[in-house]
Amino acid sequence: MKRLPTILVAGAGMAGLVGLVKLPPTRRWLLGRLASGQGPSPEQRAKSWFRVRFLGAGGDRRVLTEVAGGDPGYDETAKMLAESALCLALDELPPTSGQVTPVTAMGDALLDRLVKAGMTFRVLDSPPRA
What we know:
Layout: H1 4-21, H2 24-31, H3 42-47, E1 50-58, E2 61-69, H4 75-90, H5 102-116, E3 120-125
Antiparallel strand pairs: 1-2, 2-3
Helix pairs in contact: 4-5
């Protein structure tokens, strides 16, 4: 989403939906809308995509990155879960302990797997901070 008003309206709509789902009649109505297995068709999923940008800053540097892929609701989520499991089971990983993020636990091994599975990761901009 590129505009703040759009983000605010979407956020308010999601908050309202979450509130309504807590009410039993609304929850039953929503659950009855689609039967199990009635999700989007393969053709619909093939048309779906996502692109997310992240801005990180630390010290005197800032980095703008982008992650992109196909259908985020089914296909890309399945890729992320499957490749993470394979990475944990099969790849040589850095030693860690405790609760860590995926990048700390799997690092470049997971990145390589996701790129081979069709996702893209790009550094868009990395100038010094002003």
